[in-house]
Amino acid sequence: MSNARILRQSAILFASDLPASIAYWHDKLGFDKHGIFGEPPQFAIMQRDGTFAMLKQAPEGHAIVPYWKISENLWNAYFWADDVAALFEEMRARGATIDYGLCDQPYDVREFGVRDPDDQDIGFGQVLTKTAV
Question: Which residues share a beta bridge with 15?
């Protein structure tokens, strides 16, 4: 095994209207616009703290199927936070579409979920014990 380390990870999501998704991630979820590519935009990298979300314009006519429609309660992306309650209050105040409110899960994580403009569920969680994920 090498000593190479993985430094970052990114969720990658399709968007039916990329400019609207970029605005949502920026205005409602508080992510910075790290990079927007193409004219009109075809790809965007959104960043908050050390995490990223890559957004790709879906081909015209392509149906985006949120994972929760395939498997109940499954997110399209999930982010870990150090103060998920404060993050929840911030995103709620920004007008994010709340999928489910702050709750403690049986897997020792406090979490909440939002929906993006394409109805994809984005989860945010905080580990409650050292034995959890």
Answer: 57
